[in-house]
């Protein structure tokens, strides 16, 4: 087979030389026909392609043949596939050259970035961030996914040349929100490249961090404010309080009964029965303090009171994993008449978790968090695109519901003992 390929190769080269006689410009012709370098040299020298030159080109040609698919090598007429063979191999060579150029460009950019940051001042900056977390895998960075709020935010900062590399970059956060949970006021702190010296505190002389970062963020993640903070600032441990809101339609819930039960959560208790245990902690502390809890009307539906929207507001200094969603789950069961308000006191005293399941993560929002002595530089953020898309989708669903074949039943909130999420989906039929 090698001999056949070699014979075909020589025939092909002689044909190329014949074609060349009718052309002007060897290099242009050779480039357009993807002629190998050794063939081009022979053509320029006017050398014939005879059998005694096999040894001279055998090494180069064998290297090409070794890289070919077996189906090509086994063809009955190798002379016909020689042009295809040479073209494929030339394309591979072009790709290697392209990859090499890309690598050189990346190295040059990396060197330029290092030089930039070596001459720049880094300052500890707090960012106030709002996001709709429905389509993200939570706030904190994870090993198995890049689809987290922190990962997207850090990559945006890297694109803006505010941080050198997003990988393994350390930040602190006010509250860790789970997959699907949103935040209206999340505070993170990280070191960003500054436009000014270390002693300069005038925000008007600094980069416009809000605009810069928002320009490369998706519309459901927005930076709304920034502030220069001291070297010792930590957004997790220096927060004064955090407040969460959980939004829900009234359906057939007894709102007054739910309100009567909220007082049992107030104060400092053992919330072991209202959280997911963290197995990584050797001596976990389940004591938490709830300083405020209420059930409030958000928007009233004039046509059907069951479609009115309410919210549960919970305020405290710190919360356990899934604590809010488990608390809401119990309040829903009380509102449905499935449990008495006394069940809250029993769970707090015994520290035992019931098999109630959790409320859905979608309506939960980290609503606010408060710090001392931070002078925020706030900016108005345009939400036109997000508002337009959302209001149109809502209108379409309402129009669909108005048709005879579709209706929203006066249903009980989904709540069973098989760990199904309460309010995990609407009931439309």
Structural commentary:
The protein is an alpha+beta fold. It is built from twelve helices and ten strands. Strands 1, 2, 3, 4, 5, 6, 7, 8, 9 and 10 form a ten-stranded mixed β-sheet that branches. A hairpin with an 8-residue loop joins strand 2 and strand 3 (182-194). Helix 1 packs across helix 6 (78-118). Residues 1-5, 20-26, 48-79 and 410-429 have low confidence and may be disordered.
| Sheet with the most strands, sense and barrel status | 10 strands, mixed
- Using only CA atoms, what is the Rg? 34 Å
Note the beta-strand portion: 15-25%
Give the overall pLDDT as a whole number. Answer: 77
Number of strands: 10
Unreliable parts = 1-5, 20-26, 48-79, 410-429
Helix content: 25-40%
Kindly name the structural category: alpha+beta
Shape: globular
The helix-strand sequence is: HHHHHHEHEEHEEHEEEHHEEH
* Termini Cα gap: 70 Å
Give the helix tally. Answer: 12
